[in-house]
Design brief:
With about 350 residues, the protein is α/β, with parallel strands linked by helices. It is about 40% helix and about 20% strand. It has helices at about 65-75, 95-105, 125-135, 140-155, 160-165, 170-185, 200-220, 230-235, 255-260, 265-270, 280-300, 300-305, 350-355, and strands at about 25-35, 40-50, 55-60, 80-85, 90, 105-110, 190-195, 220-225, 240-245, 245-255, 330-335, 340. The strands form 2 sheets. Strands 6-7-8-3-9-10-12-11 form an 8-stranded mixed beta sheet, sandwiched between helices. α6 (about 170-185) packs parallel to α7 (about 200-220) and α10 (about 265-270) packs across α11 (about 280-300). The chain is globular.
């Protein structure tokens, strides 16, 4: 099913109409930003996906592809220009009580753990505030118990000592654990993690991702993991969506998308990612793919590189496999079980149209 015609078929043949098939479902999400002179920039173009309970779905792509805008639109921090967000099968509230109820169940974890915490308040304040908003009748003793439980759940001990600290007294990893604990305070069903480890030391990134994975399993959460790191996306996610210039160009089971990439953009991303497990032949193939991409870009005229993309494939100016037919919008083609790619390479009509 096309991106522009609604949510795609789920991995494993799950139907959209199945009861309780997903906690979070996004249909044809569009986000436009108004620019100077009244011109609109389309940051997200008809993106659809769903996440089930206990499932992690990764959204990957290079900087500027629109990943964070998707998170902010789903989290109701950015107003969508079109499309529908469903939570438990019901449209997300956009204002008042409906919006507050939605934000209780859908929580965000931001990229920068220092900027997301108020430096003027203690850790206890950051965790106690959402609990008090949900349970205004809690006694101080009960509130302290809940704060302690949250800190223990993210492996911050001793909890009494951590609760008294201010953000600047914590390491980057500790601050991100506090941010995760705060997101859990409302008892959400969905976590939206926007590059949660990209600003942390390499040595602790795996710890934070493992923590999120454990919490997802223990609390049966739906987790959207936004990253540019294909290795962690494959390791921690059941499904991967690859985003380029506002569109999902490939999606499917994590291993299929990484090991059997169908879209040239995904192949280039995978080739650029270091992987010590790759064989000598695979490394050689990756080098050849990068060389082909550089040669393809160098061989095109300046006029072609600067031409407006129009309705054609948005990746074609960088694609080593670009064809004449790529000036037309590519089809959304099934390339495996639950695996789809937005590319002419997998459509049998492409060769005929190119010859014509």
């Amino acid at each position: 099913m096309s991106e522009r015609s609604g949510a795609p078929e789920a991995s494993g043949g799950q139907s959209v109409s199945e009861p309780e098939a997903s906690v979070l479902e996004v249909r044809d999400l569009v986000v436009d930003f108004r620019q100077r002179g009244g011109v609109s920039l389309r940051a997200v173009d008809h993106v659809s996906f769903r996440i089930k309970q206990g499932q992690t779905v990764a959204l990957v792509g290079e900087s500027g592809s629109g990943k964070s805008t998707v998170v902010r639109a789903v989290g109701q921090l950015v107003r969508a220009s079109g499309g529908t967000v469903l939570l438990g099968g019901r449209p997300a509230g956009r204002r008042g009580r409906g919006l507050r109820a939605y934000r209780k169940r859908v929580q965000l974890i931001f990229q920068d753990p220092f900027a997301s915490l108020n430096p003027m308040h203690t850790v206890r304040h950051h965790l106690a505030r959402p609990i008090m908003m949900l349970h205004p009748g809690h006694s101080r003793a009960r509130l302290d118990e809940d704060v302690t439980a949250l800190l223990r759940s993210v492996n911050l001990t001793p909890p009494d000592e951590i609760a008294r600290k201010y953000p600047h007294e914590l390491s980057g990893g500790q601050r991100q654990r506090v941010a995760i604990a705060r997101a859990l305070a409302s008892g959400p069903d969905v976590l939206l993690a926007d590059e949660p480890v990209s600003m942390l030391d390499v040595s602790i990134r795996l710890e934070i991702l493992s923590l999120l994975d454990r919490l997802k399993r223990e609390r049966n959460l739906a987790l959207l993991y936004v990253t540019h790191d294909l290795a962690t996306a494959r390791h921690f996610s059941a499904e991967i969506m690859v985003m380029y210039r506002g569109e999902i160009v490939e999606r499917g089971p994590a291993d299929d998308v990484i090991l059997n990439s169908a879209h040239p953009y995904t192949r280039l991303l995978a080739a650029a990612a270091p992987d010590p497990s790759l064989s000598r032949e695979q490394l050689a193939a990756a080098r050849k793919a990068r060389q082909r991409a550089r040669a393809a870009r160098a061989g095109r005229s300046a006029e072609y590189r600067e031409a407006a993309l129009g309705d054609g494939c948005r990746f074609r100016l960088r694609c080593p496999d670009a064809m004449d037919v790529c000036v037309r919008r590519p089809p959304d083609v099934a390339v495996g079980a639950g695996h789809r790619a937005l590319c002419w390479l997998h459509d049998p009509k492409a060769a005929v149209m190119t010859r014509g």
